[in-house]
Amino acid sequence: MKKKYRMTLTMRILLLVFVPLWALSGASIGIGTHYMAEQQTRKLKDDIKLIARAIRVPIGEAINQGDLATVRRTLDAVFSLGQVYGASVYNEDGQRIAAAGIAGQEDSTDNPLAEQLVRVGQDGDAYQHQAGRRVFSHFVPVTDETGKISSMVEVTRRASDFSATMDRIIFWAWGCWGVVGLLTLGIVLLGYRQAVGRQVANLTNVMADVGRGQLGVRAPQSGATELGTIAEAFNQMLDDIEQAQQAIAAHRQQEATLNQQLERQERMAALGRLVSGIAHELGAPLNVIDGRARRLSRHHQQESAQHELSAIRGQVKRLTRIVHQLLDFSRSGAQREAIELRESVQAAVDSIKHELASVPPKITVDIPPEVSVTVDPARFELLLVNLLRNACQAAVSQVGVSYQSDADSWSLSVWDDGAGIDAELDPQRLLEPFFTTKPKGQGTGLGLAIVHNIVSDHHGELRLSHAQTGGLQVSLRFPEEVKA
Fold first, then answer.
1. pTM exceeds 0.70
2. In the chain, what are the domains?
3. Which of 28, 173, 350, 417 is paired with 280 by a 20 to 30 Å CA distance?
């Protein structure tokens, strides 16, 4: 397809603005010089008329007296003025009787025009040729004492006198017009470059950068108001595109997060079903082993036998606790009722005291006694037990439980002064089932996973952070509707 030619903005400005103005100025100069030429010609003709009328009286008197010498002297005096190119006197028959200047160089002794004007008896003028040169002649009739026309005076001037001065004026006028036009052209181009061209170039460069994918660039909004408005609109378009891309990226991120959550929930559901089945299958054999070990301990009183049987029962209890955790992990749903939060926390503290070391950490509970919340009591107590057990195992000397509330939610935080978690470890990994940072054989990795499931069933949020005391802080936030 043939590319269509399009004029640049510079060419449009020159054709639509500069050229019409330049042509208008040229027309003005043409009209002005023509008017000046008319005025100059009229002035020169009037000068000739004044001279001719000034000499006709003395010439008429001299002719009436028959004094041709005086007539010639008068004509010579007129010719000496410099403005007159020639002068002649004709009798009533149109024959030249005296001449001066160029008129004296002619061979002809009569002038048909003079003869005609003598018969008419009026002034007249005309362009004619004398001695091979073009001249302008003005004729004035001369009368005698009776008022009869006795002769005709002719005063001539070179025709070039009428055009020489105007030719110079016209030459300089059109020359100045051309010079001013070139200067105006330069000013227009320079002004366009400063006022429009530079900003248009900047906009073009910005558009080229955007075309190459650099959406962070912005067009400068300085300069002419119209171009500034275009730059502002272009920048707004880029801002809208950037916001749209951010919204799309956020939507994709949210979609990816939801997909990950859905995939995790599907894995957790499948894992929960598997764990529930395994826990039920292990529960009965463990009860049988514990019962038989208890019966054997009554029949064998030897110290060695009692020690071995006690070790077997201890391991069975540990396996039983793991089975209970697995069953708690696989449970879902919540049957809520109002409970006293401080009493529930204290009951969880009492249930883990037998698990603590000989020098247990100090547990501080900062919860007002009148606070009541609506939760699933059994599962919420299991949540508290797992949090307090982990905190006490990690603490050096202090464990704290604190409560806060606002207009639409309430929160519970459990913290310790232990070593905390490794800075390179993603805290979210602690919520994965069977992931633990404890030494092998000391943890199942189900504690925080159970807590996270219970919090999710209560439509709450769980957040892990560094405590001010240096250890780990677990913050639980529940919406207002689960608060009594």
1. no
2. 9-167 (3.30.450.20), 247-330 (1.10.287.130), 334-482 (3.30.565.10)
3. 350
Q: 104-126, pLDDT tens digit by residue?
A: 666 556 677 777 777 777 788 88
Count other Cβ atoms within 10 Å, centred on residue 116: 13
CA dihedral 426→432→434→437, nearest 10 degrees, is 20
pLDDT on residue 441 = 47
Tokens matching residue 211: 């075309």
Give the per-residue pLDDT at 272.
61
Q: What is the pLDDT of residues 370-424, one digit of tens each?
A: 888 888 887 888 888 888 888 888 888 888 999 998 878 899 999 888 877 766 6
- Residue 326 pLDDT exceeds 70: no
Q: Cα(198)–Cα(327) distance, rounded to whole angstroms?
A: 75
